[in-house]
Amino acid sequence: MPKVRSALLPIAKIQQTLGVTALLGPLVTNRKKTLELGYTEEETDHILLFAGFSVNDTLLEQMARGDEFVAQTKALAYPPEVPYFKVISRQTYETPNKQLSITPQEYQMEHLKRIGPHATYEVLEGTHFIYQTNVERIASIVDEVLNT
């Protein structure tokens, strides 16, 4: 984690304690955009309600120790008998990441190689929040994986 972000964690803890996160959500959320993505007003209200409580001690610890947790996860073997299908956003697949010394495509392929030869993937149009704009295709993929 960059030093700047880790320095902000104590501020996030204060925000959590004071409930500031719940107050900021409605101010920074583009309701029109959520509607364009297909969410209803009620669903947007629920997202904001949940987001106000999403900053907690567990999340802050995850952020602070992210590098350590990623290293631990990379060391785990993925069971070959468990199907694996990775949905990758085109933006993630094509946009270089300054934190990586390899291309985004190489990064994704290395990840799939670590999973094993049974790992499959599909690149879908969209941003990191791919699940918001590709609901139908992702549901179809899940059905296909579960049926095999």
Write the topology of this structure.
Layout: H1 3-18, H2 20-28, H3 31-36, H4 41-51, H5 57-64, H6 66-75, E1 84-89, H7 90-94, H8 104-115, E2 119-124, H9 135-147
Parallel strand pairs: 1-2
Helix pairs in contact: 1-5, 2-4
What does this protein look like?
With 148 residues, the protein is mainly alpha-helical. It has helices spanning 3-18, 20-28, 31-36, 41-51, 57-64, 66-75, 90-94, 104-115, 135-147; strands spanning 84-89, 119-124. It folds into 2 domains: 3-67, no CATH class; 78-147. It has 9 helices and 2 strands. Helix 2 (20-28) packs antiparallel against helix 4. It starts with a helix and ends with a helix.
Which percent range fits the helix content?
Answer: 55-70%
Please identify the structural class as seen in this structure: mainly alpha
Order of helices and strands: HHHHHHEHHEH
Give the N-terminus to C-terminus distance in angstroms: 38 Å
Q: Count the helices. How many?
A: 9
Spans where pLDDT lies below 50 across 5 or more residues: none
- Average of pLDDT: 88
Structural Rg? 18 Å
Biggest sheet: strand arrangement = 1-2
Beta content? 5-15%
Domain module count: 2
Count of DSSP strands: 2
Shape: globular
